[in-house]
Amino acid sequence: MKTALVIVLLHLWLGASAAVGQGTTLRGFITDRSNSAALEGANVTVRDAQQTLRGTVSNADGYYQLARIPPGVYVLRVSFVGYAPFTDTLRLGDIPLVTRSVALEPGEVLDEVIVQQEGGAGALRAGQQQVRPADLERIPTPDPSGDLATYLQTLPGVVSLGDRGGQLFIRGGTPSQNLVLLDGSMIYQPFHIIGFFSAFPQDLISHVDVFAGGFGARYSGRLSSVIDVTMRGGNTRSVEGAASVGPFLASMRLEGPLRKGSLSWLGSVRTSVIEQTAPTLLGQSLPLTFSDIVIKVQQAGASNNRCSLTGVHTYDRGRVSPDAQRTEVFRWSNTVVAGRCVGFSPGSSVFIEANGGFSYVNNAVGDVDRPERSANAWLFNTDVHWTYPMGTTDIQGGFYLQIEGGGYRLAEQFQGIRDTDDYQVGTGLYVGATLDVGEHLDVQPSLALTYPLSYTPSIEPRLRLAWHPWGTEAQTLTAALGLYRQTVQGINDERDVGSVFTVWIPTPVNNARARALHALVGWQQRLGAFTVAAEGYYKRLNNLPVPIWSVIARFTTSLTLADGEVYGMDTRVEFQRRPFYAYLGYGYSWTKYTTAQDNFGLWFDEPIQSYHPPHDRRHQINAILGFNAGAFKASLRWQYGSGLPYTRALGADSFIRFINLPDVRRIYGNPRFLFERPYQGRLPAYHRLDASVEYAFDLRLAELTLQAGAINVYDQRNLFYFDLFTFRRVDQLSFLPYVSLLVEVR
């Protein structure tokens, strides 16, 4: 490992030296002058006397770079929608590296955009979705500030089992197979117990990359998907704040400069109030509580680097089932400390990103004061990523070191897994490239070497490509292929639809690391104000730990290994022309697990048992309509999901313990249910309409936003589950009108 690190550092030094004599590399950061926030997607162009144009766009950190510019006089132009353009004259000679950072003034809205940034729900490139804060506010949410959790559930291929639980299943994967990053550090369970909310509210987000599959070698350790969230920094110029209250939560945010123009702080506190408001609004109790706290300090004044330190704490508690007869209380909490620096040295064209942090999760189930089962997991991480430009080619690489551990007390829920505390060390590196093959083809090969020190090292090749048949971004064919492995896996009892208790264990069965093969291909087309995208995908999964079912209902079970197969298609149509917005997404998905008969030995002498897991939703539709005219906004969202699998009851009998010859004429035993093969039935379809309108009042020193809306407008009875023992039906949220208020002080 030390040898590999030396090779990487030597390559960087040689690459930086080779840049001399190959023209000038122009680079820098593009920021908002009013608050020093990074501007992603800003257009940066240079034009010489012959009107030859070179251009690029800034990345999520506001960084841009143009390489191999010949000596001469150029006009530099930087533009971004909603900001006054910046122009300057540059005289470039034999200097190999020139740094020019630009702070744009908010103001003029540009009609011309030279290079258009990809974004919006209709832009899908080989499984990747770029999410901006403006995308979140289009979704009706019972809070004036949108939330990433609500937005993700509008994407085809993302399945939520209900309004409660805080779990997302992406293209057939489970929640524990999702890699969620917060400023470069992992967060285990970021989604709150009420499905509308997460640790990522709209007003704190700078940028999100969502990979539903096919992600490159930069990301390792998870099988299914990546949600990479960058939180914004505070205002470096002035103090400002906001406070809001609604039927679900109350929040407060403050931010301002620690050192004016260069160092800022940001703090946010949110807490739920639905437990107090539900009896009035719903006519029933909703025993759910959640909260989150975010603190971020960011240095953003330097011309060649930006650093930040972020702290996040979340807490969730409640009964996922509103049924008073089910007394199990779930609770979990996350604590994350994430440090991140990006930048470059004056004498090198290599762009560096360094992350380091600590993440901790604790979850439990049972009595509030004395939980029956509990589990925790923690992770120390440090990783470095670099990008070296070589003309039209970018070379990427990086390495990481992780120490991960945890403990669990399971009260014999899973046989063969003893209560313990343990940890393991893992390391790895990767290398990749972004290649422009002519004007039509972009190729991104990458290779990851992962080495959990208690296991055999593994090589994971990945490939992503984009083909522009007519040489423009308006039509693009994308594809991806990759191999993925996961060592630490989240185990929960999928036999119970109301369970969100998760145990993080390294290779819980036979020391077998889970692995997946991803393959996908898609087409994206822009037609004026319309963007159309369609993508088909296939996943092959191996060594998935699953609980062993029995025809008899019982608490204790064992784990075994299953293989999985997933395929499906996502289609999207998006229309954007102010003041109107429209979006229609349809997803088809098929997921099946297969395991040997030896593990499911109580069924019908078949050598192989196959079943569709509880998140296998075959059809899903989301339709969104929006209207945004200055201070007035209105939005509608209709969602439909076909029925999820469940296990049907085969019948019932009485269980009698034949000890000391009981008198069966007077002792009738305990009633019990017998079950069919797992998940052979389907629940009724789910559908719901949400609506919201809001108006912003300018009060000179503050802005007041009044929001009104309703969840489940036509009061559809959507089944959550049916209790066979009490014959009681438990539904998801019924019709719920709301009024929310947001005050922002400038």
Describe the structure.
There is one protein chain. By secondary structure, this protein is mostly beta strands. It folds into 3 domains: 103 residues, Immunoglobulin-like (Sandwich); 102 residues, TonB-dependent receptor, plug domain (Ferric Hydroxamate Uptake Protein, Chain A, domain 1); 478 residues, Maltoporin, Chain A (Beta Barrel). Helix content is 5%, strand content 55%. The protein has a 22-stranded antiparallel beta barrel. A 5-stranded mixed sheet has the order 9-14-15-12-13. The radius of gyration is 27 Å and the shape is globular. The N terminus is likely disordered.
Helicity range: under 10%
- Nearest-angstrom radius of gyration? 27 Å
> CATH H level of the largest domain: which superfamily?
TonB-dependent receptor, beta-barrel domain
Q: Kindly state the mean pLDDT as a whole number?
A: 85
Counted beta strands? 47
| Structural class designation | mainly beta
Topology:
Blueprint (H helix, E strand, L loop, with lengths): L1 H17 L5 E9 L10 E5 L5 E5 L5 E7 L2 E8 L6 E7 L4 E3 L2 E3 L23 E4 L1 H4 L11 H5 L5 E2 L9 E2 L7 E5 L2 E2 L18 E7 L13 E7 L8 E6 L3 E11 L3 E10 L1 H8 L6 E12 L5 E14 L10 E15 L7 E16 L4 E20 L2 E17 L4 E2 L4 E18 L3 E12 L5 E10 L7 E12 L1 E4 L11 E4 L7 E14 L2 E18 L9 E21 L2 E17 L11 E4 L7 E11 L2 E10 L3 E2 L2 E7 L14 E6 L5 E2 L3 E13 L3 E10 L7 E5 L4 E4 L4 E10 L1
Parallel strand pairs: 1-7, 1-8, 12-15, 25-34
Antiparallel strand pairs: 1-4, 2-3, 2-5, 5-6, 9-14, 10-11, 12-13, 14-15, 16-17, 16-47, 17-18, 18-19, 19-20, 20-21, 21-22, 22-23, 23-24, 24-26, 26-27, 27-28, 28-29, 29-32, 30-31, 32-33, 33-34, 34-35, 35-36, 35-37, 37-38, 38-43, 39-42, 40-41, 43-44, 44-47, 45-46
